[in-house]
């Protein structure tokens, strides 16, 4: 049995403004109708060689993970990190949990939730080939043939084949060299490290303990003392926060004598930039990629994406132009490093735009701010079937709700009533209230807030079915 261990905790700043802290790139439908997270899980669905996946994510993304799994009809063990500690501790905790749930005989395949694979069947066979080597005590990584010298990836020096198989001894592991050394490595036949690893949990944890026994032990304690919360498992933060924040590459792979590499050709991309999205998407005759309401004239080699606004582009080349509802990016398509620096500056001056975006997703649905004034705010609220906001009250604002689609069940000071399409209801300051969707279609309503303070932290949560009583969001 091979257990997929899916790492899904990244923030995806190189794909801003589409990717935000609250909804990073792995949850976006960048290619077709499915997110890369969903595409990752679908590679294992229906293949009896793979068992129930383990998803490592953070608390902020737990409901996104749960919702997107539900859309696929896939069940998984969803593990929440309250403190982000990089891939090493996450993989160590996942290995401890897999061993606890399934025993020492299982094999783990570590995959990232934001990678794309062109040929899932070849990927699946690669996992099975690597699993045979992992049964013999090796830690196997997948090696990708480089197509350019990149400083964004680790490099692998493959050695002789092991017992006549495709798996090779890994003679050297180099973590993200500069471009000059990358050129040298490519000339010497090095491969890119894809970030996928296949191993026995016992072997990985033994090797981790040799290099960093404190982290390996703390990861185990975090799993042993983890607490269930709805359909999630929360790692014990007092233990997990003691782990050293290192990637698995630095923590284990550069140092272990048990490393092996399987050269693979399944069409891999880490979708690490807008340039990657451009390269992986269908292009027109001028090598432009267009998504949304976009019109071009005398333009070549551009990626132009618009959520809603008509975006007109004239006489430019090699740009990424991304227009969302609250931000517009114009950048050189290939300069991902500069974009990461830019997002750092935006986070200092416009933190909400860097982290949340115009549409904020919640376990019950989403809301979007449409207009804000000194003493008022207008929001569009969507509540999914079966969804309900917390039972709450506000000290500084009143609210007017106008239902424009569906039928809402509203609790107002212990009195319940149904509010139908084209009807409205007024929520006074201090009134205890709740909004629910008992129907089978989304509720859509317009909320007008008025008052002296309109911040999201003016929510006194009294009861919540999603166990968010310590959080200050709807």
UniProtKB/TrEMBL annotation:
Keyword Transferase among record annotations: yes
Keyword Transferase set for record: yes
Annotated Mannose-6-phosphate isomerase type II C-terminal domain residues: 356-464
InterPro entries: GMPP_N, Man1P_GuaTrfase/Man6P_Isoase, Man6P_isomerase-2_C, ManC/GMP-like_b-helix, Mannose-6P_isomerase_type2, NTP_transferase_dom, Nucleotide-diphossugar_trans, RmlC-like_jellyroll
Annotated signal sequence range: none
Coiled-coil regions listed: none
Pfam family, one: NTP_transferase
EC number: 2.7.7.13
A single GO molecular function term of this UniProt record: mannose-6-phosphate isomerase activity
UniProt domain MannoseP isomerase/GMP-like beta-helix: residue ranges: 294-345
Domain of life, source organism: Bacteria
Recorded catalytic activity of this chain's protein: alpha-D-mannose 1-phosphate + GTP + H(+) = GDP-alpha-D-mannose + diphosphate
Domain Nucleotidyl transferase, chain residue ranges per copy: 4-284
Keywords: GTP-binding, Isomerase, Nucleotide-binding, Nucleotidyltransferase, Transferase
Family, as annotated: Belongs to the mannose-6-phosphate isomerase type 2 family.
Protein name: mannose-1-phosphate guanylyltransferase
Protein's organism: Flaviflagellibacter deserti
